[in-house]
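BUG: 3D viewer hangs when loading the predicted structure for this chain

Environment: internal workstation, default settings.
Expected: structure renders.
Actual: progress bar stalls at 90%.

Input used:
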Amino acid sequence: MTPGLVVLFGSGETSASGRRAFDWLFQRVPAPVQVSVLETPAGFQPNSAWVADQVADFLRQRLQNYKPEVTVVPARQRGTPFSPDDPAIVEPLLRSNVIFAGPGSPTYAVRQLQDSLAWHTLVARHHQGVAVVLASAMTLAASTHTLPVYEIYKAGADLHWQPGLDWFGPYGLSLIFVPHWNNAEGGVHLDTSRCFMGQERFARLLALLPAGVTVVGIDEHTALVMDLEAGNCHVVGRGGVTLVREGEQRRLPSGQTCVTAELGPFHVPEPGIGVPPAIWDRVQAAQAEAQAPASPGPPPDVLALAVEREAARAARDWSAADALRNQLEARGWQVRDTPTGPALSQD
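Structure tokens produced before the viewer hung:
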């Protein structure tokens, strides 16, 4: 059992560059491609279903060559009928081989997913080899500390970090992902790089972090692909990725690869580490059921006896029908008469 691929977008997951990244990923996912779109990060918005549907429609239409089966998982908010702790809501994650989570609020995503059934299931499925794609708010939320973008940029909160989901902590990595690294929406009047913080404010934010943290800045229309099994990271898209670690900065342009150990003391943990045992057992059982070979149908000679018995019953030759039933039972098959015909089952 090896962890699946991880794709982290800086932005543009539903753009032409995003399509190329998904195309690269879907080539490496066993058919059929089954995608779950986790709605949680945008769950506070009245139109969160529309936000998730936009991603789902993009995958269905722009990646149609792969015929992806896309399911939206409406795990919007705890304490509601659409809770990320509801097994029925979360169930599609058990049968997906790609899980996507993206736009919304990073701090909301952390509050709703921390120690939730949905998050633990996502982590467990990733341990089983399922690919995970994160974008926008969810890229931020997966960090050891997440940047409260809306609180600072929109509401004027003091500069600070909030605890994140720390997805890569069990891998020995203390990572902070920052999408929109090279954003330029503010033009010449406002520096909106570093996910709308600007370079001056972000320098002060860096000073608030504990030692040993690696900041991974991902440009817009760019993705960082992490192959944890192979122990390397690859940059795809229009821009690049910037690594900030222990005061040093390294730039990785599109097309470049680095070893994962450059992010910190990387190691692959034992499968299931960090997942509550009950959830791990549930995920393991679901995988075993999905991989179990289908029960073989009745062999031709058994089917022939069943057809012959049905003909005897139609002719009201009950003695012959009973004799044929005995022959079926001798071969280990039970026959049950139903309104739609005989049903065969093994002992």
